[in-house]
């Protein structure tokens, strides 16, 4: 146990990373799935131990190879880092049991091992981004997750999946390039890539044009990665045409980890110079966040493909997260952090429900979901329940996030923004209702009146996430306490 606690921070990342090469020898579909599922469960268990250790004992600093910073790479995990690692590992542990039958239906058998291999690499990359205390190592893990994601998206059944993966490849590479250029400028001015060192050294050069440009490059780079409006153009097609199980995992984790990275850079690396205030960019970030909230929701209303509808909804939800980050107070920042978890839960459940629909119906177009309330009552009920959370109905996780965001807006004196948060939530009612109306108030196609549900192996994980969406909406003690503690720590470090 002592060995586990001593190396827990690196084990969470290393376990899935070292497990992926096994697929060079493991080509059987069932065995591939079992291996990935087992590794994800182990990683989730390690993440639970990790966050408990951090909450009880404080921040973990782990020097790889006993090389201290800035000469070596360190893992530096605090409350928000451990929280994000818990989100990623939990979603992987739930998505992989769901994935078996979904992947069997949507992907040729000879490619199953490739899906699970890339899945583990993607998970390892996302976990590494949350763990590392080195700004360049953040880029390395970003690319590990991104490269595996491009492959996962390209494996979609629709031929348009390849085009979607190519678009994401181009824009993702552009985003990573922007980040590296900005990072190079910071290294030029400070001579270090360690985040803690950068935080100490940047105040001395904060007025230089090089630092100003570096900040702009970094913000744009991660704006592309997290699909901040109007840098979101890769996301709708990627979510729409990727295999259902892949969409579940990516929608629940990828943008959230990118948001985390932006939080880390803003409040840790640039924390002492308060870039949102010092450089006067707060109004720009807030404006883009609000524009994303409304544009994403408006575009969702007019979609005929429900996966695409939920993809545009994710752009709106990213807007909520970025809005919370930009408020500069504990309630707002905590709201953004809580929404990372809450959005992962509710959007994961919704995409799982759509995967069940695709398994049975072979389509997720709105018109093909007519009468689904009678044909697939459990699946339809799952979608409605997830929709409640997306809208922000009380007793769901969506309500908790928006409550903190509204509170943060009032504390900042932004009462018009608080009103806009509530108005944007009403738009979710419209696009969720479009689907509900078709499922429950239209007759099923002739010959399809008999109920036929998706396999229980897909329905059970869906309802597990729905259970979490309501449980953490009723009792938000854990998520709120972690988010508020993380927010206060980050804000304390920025002053």
How would you describe what is shown here?
By secondary structure, this protein is mostly helical. The chain has a domain at 281-495. 76% of the residues lie in helices and 2% in strands. Strands 1-2 form a two-stranded antiparallel ribbon. Helix 3 (79-106) packs antiparallel against helix 4 (112-131), helix 12 (282-301) runs antiparallel to helix 13 (306-326) and helix 17 runs antiparallel to helix 18 (415-441). The longest helix has 32 residues, at 330-361. It is globular, with a radius of gyration of 22 Å. It starts with a helix and ends with a helix. The mean pLDDT is 87.
Q: Which class best fits the helix and strand makeup?
A: mainly alpha
Q: What is the percent of helical residues?
A: over 70%
Gyration radius from CA atoms, angstroms: 22 Å
What proportion of the residues form beta strands (DSSP E)?
under 5%
Q: Strand-and-helix sequence, N→C?
A: HHEEHHHHHHHHHHHHHHHHHH
Unreliable sequence segments: none
Major sheet summary line:
2 strands, antiparallel
What is the mean pLDDT? Answer: 87
The helix count comes to: 20
In one word, what is the shape?
globular
Question: How far is the N terminus from the C terminus?
Answer: 38 Å
Physical arrangement of strands within the biggest beta sheet: 1-2
Tell me the total number of β-strands. Answer: 2
């Amino acid at each position: 146990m002592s060995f586990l606690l001593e190396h827990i921070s690196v084990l969470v990342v290393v376990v899935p990373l070292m497990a992926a090469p096994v697929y060079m020898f493991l080509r059987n579909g069932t065995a591939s799935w079992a291996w990935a599922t087992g590794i994800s469960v182990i990683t989730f268990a390690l993440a639970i131990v990790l966050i408990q250790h951090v909450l009880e004992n404080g921040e973990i600093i782990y020097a790889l190879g006993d090389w201290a910073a800035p000469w070596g790479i360190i893992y530096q995990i605090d409350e928000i880092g451990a929280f994000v690692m818990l989100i990623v590992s939990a979603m992987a542990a739930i998505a992989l049991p769901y994935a078996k039958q979904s992947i069997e239906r949507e992907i040729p058998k000879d490619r199953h091992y490739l899906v699970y291999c890339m899945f583990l690499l993607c998970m390892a990359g996302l976990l590494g981004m949350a763990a590392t205390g080195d700004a360049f190592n953040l880029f390395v893990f970003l690319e590990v997750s991104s490269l595996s994601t491009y492959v996962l998206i390209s494996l979609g059944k629709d031929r348009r999946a390849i085009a979607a993966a190519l678009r994401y490849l181009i824009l993702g590479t552009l985003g990573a390039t922007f980040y590296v250029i900005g990072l190079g400028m910071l290294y030029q001015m400070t001579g270090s890539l360690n985040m803690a060192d950068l935080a100490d050294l940047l105040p001395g050069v904060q007025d230089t044009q090089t630092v100003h440009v570096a900040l702009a490059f970094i913000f744009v780079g991660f704006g592309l990665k997290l699909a901040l409006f109007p840098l979101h153009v890769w996301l709708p097609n990627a979510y729409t045409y990727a295999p259902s199980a892949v969409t579940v995992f990516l929608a629940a984790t990828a943008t959230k980890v990118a948001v985390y990275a932006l939080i880390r850079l803003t409040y840790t690396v640039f924390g002492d110079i308060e870039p949102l205030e010092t450089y006067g960019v707060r109004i720009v970030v807030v404006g883009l966040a609000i524009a994303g909230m409304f544009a994403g929701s408006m575009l969702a209303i007019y979609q005929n493909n429900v996966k695409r509808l939920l993809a545009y909804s994710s752009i709106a939800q990213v807007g909520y997260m970025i809005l919370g980050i930009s408020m500069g107070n504990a309630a707002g920042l905590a709201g953004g952090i809580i929404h990372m978890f809450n959005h992962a839960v509710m959007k994961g459940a919704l995409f799982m429900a759509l995967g069940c629909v695709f398994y049975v119906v072979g389509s997720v177009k709105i018109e093909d979901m007519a009468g689904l309330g009678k044909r697939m009552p459990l699946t339809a009920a799952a979608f409605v329940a997830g929709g409640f959370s997306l809208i922000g109905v009380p007793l769901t996780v969506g309500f908790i996030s928006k409550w903190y965001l509204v509170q943060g807006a009032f504390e900042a004196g932004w009462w018009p923004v608080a009103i806009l948060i509530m108005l944007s939530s009403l738009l979710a009612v419209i696009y969720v209702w479009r689907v509900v109306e078709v499922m429950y108030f239209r007759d099923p196609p002739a010959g399809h009146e008999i109920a036929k549900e998706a396999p229980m192996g897909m329905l059970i994980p869906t309802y597990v996430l729905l259970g979490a969406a309501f449980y953490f909406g009723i009792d938000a003690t854990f998520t709120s306490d972690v988010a508020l503690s993380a927010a206060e720590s980050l804000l304390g470090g920025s002053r």
